[in-house]
Amino acid sequence: MIANRGEIALRINRACRELGVQTVAIYSEADRDALHVRHADEAFCVGPGPAARSYLNIPNIISTALITGCEAIHPGYGFLSENARFAEICADHGLVFIGPPPRVIAAMGDKATAKRVMREAGVATTPGTDILESLDEARRAADEIGYPVLLKATAGGGGKGMREVRSPDELERAFAGAQAEAEASFKDGRVYMEKLIVNPRHVEVQVLGDAHGTVVHLGERDCSVQKPTHQKLIEEALAPNLSERARSALHEMAVRACRHVGYVNAGTLEFLVSGDDVYFMEMNTRIQVEHPVTEMVYNIDLVKEQIRVAAGEPLGYDQGDLVPRGHAIECRINAEDPRNNFAPQAGTLTTVVFPGGPGIRVDTHVHGGATVPPYYDSMLAKIIAFGETREAAIARMERALRETVIERVATTVGQCLEILAHPRFREGRYDIGFLPALLAAAPAAR
Which of the residues 197, 302, 384, 445 could staple to 361 if both were Cys, CB 3.0 to 4.6 A apart? Predict the structure, then answer.
């Protein structure tokens, strides 16, 4: 069963097709005519449009898996992909959860716990706290750590439940806001605090582990081009202008951390990088949105590897066999209006034309006539460009974006072109403050 929707559901279905594995899709009433429904062997509605009543409806999903005779469930990303309880329920019903063991999901999914576990493994983390029980405790912690600080939802992701605090008079409002957003987004209002490292790079490491004790990394991705809400917009592999000292530390820490927790399947460790200094931030115990750039550079199908590992197969290679080649860049094409703080858009797409040609890959679930519902993430497609050099990949991406036509909703295509043309991006010398500064400096140009 593919317990997801959109482009990742199609991506998983394609991997299954090539492996000779039959698939069952689930869908909400809003996705009845979606492509992931058409391409699966079987498809079943699990509820109405809102995700809480469909793609997060565990009883309906498990019942459908059992009725259709499924052996395994692939959760994709988002929705139930990092829900340890869901993984346990799968096991309780004889279903293989395609991901790490539930205990690992639980430990890594709680970000405060994850940082403690990483410290035990000897992995550098940013100075911070465990769960904050009160505003007074937050005040004492901020005074001890030193402003600026960052409040983060322990169950968070996608920038939700996160607040920067630069002075004591901002703390009370930020603390209440972070808790409220965390509760609304994750039904878990707990937050913790860490030192805010001003404008670091956001670099992550892709890992794979099997049940036979092999753990490897597949290099790093730079994800520093982020909207003011901390949501990623452009990613690339490998990270440009990264010192060899920082690169080696990232890879070594990632593998050490996975061995420490007994990690199995695909995962990603996210780090903040400032010069040669590397700090663990969080771990995503699932496939990432940006996994295609790693696939292009390492010529490995990560989703197929997930399925094989879940079936008990060994990886069949070790670290020395993994040699990167060339450079890859991914642009997220979202139904958002960059001129209006990236407000999500909904509606029916009239014209949709995606690019092609050498070195271009498009992962998407939309087409002309498709409806963009208001219930889910706003991503329409991911355009990935590969080149023998970073310069060649950028040139291909620019060409691909100019070929892209999506009508009737605003998208991020123009914003991505503006970023690619900027000297700081061209030089590969950007950080997480790059896009917010670009937006603040020239709002009319967007």
Answer: 384
CATH of domain 127-195: 3.30.1490.20
CA distance linking residue 70 with residue 92, whole number of Å: 14
> Domain spanning 201-445: which superfamily?
ATP-grasp fold, B domain (3.30.470.20)
- Domain range list for the chain: 6-98, 127-195, 201-445
| Backbone phi, psi, residue 317, to 5° | -155, 165
Packing angle of the helix pair 390-403, 413-421 (nearest 10 deg): 150
Cβ burial 128-144 (10 Å sphere, 16+ → b, else e): bbeebeeeeebeebbee
If the chain, 446 residues long, is cut into consecutive pieces of 10 residues, what is the mean pLDDT of each piece? 98 98 98 97 98 97 98 97 97 98 94 89 91 96 96 83 95 96 91 91 98 98 95 98 97 97 97 95 96 98 98 97 98 96 96 98 97 96 98 98 97 98 97 96 59
User: Catalytic annotation on 286?
Assistant: yes
How many CB atoms lie under 10 A from the CB of residue 275? 10
0.85 exceeded by the pTM? Answer: yes
Pairing of strands 232-237, 191-195: unpaired
Query: How many CA atoms are closer than 13 Å to the CA of 407, on its beta-carbon side?
Result: 8
Rounded Cα gap, residues 322 and 180, in angstroms:
44
* CATH 3.90.550.10 holds for 6-98: no
Which of the residues 163, 190, 247, 286 is marked catalytic?
Answer: 286
Round to whole Å and give the CA distance between 259 and 215.
Answer: 7
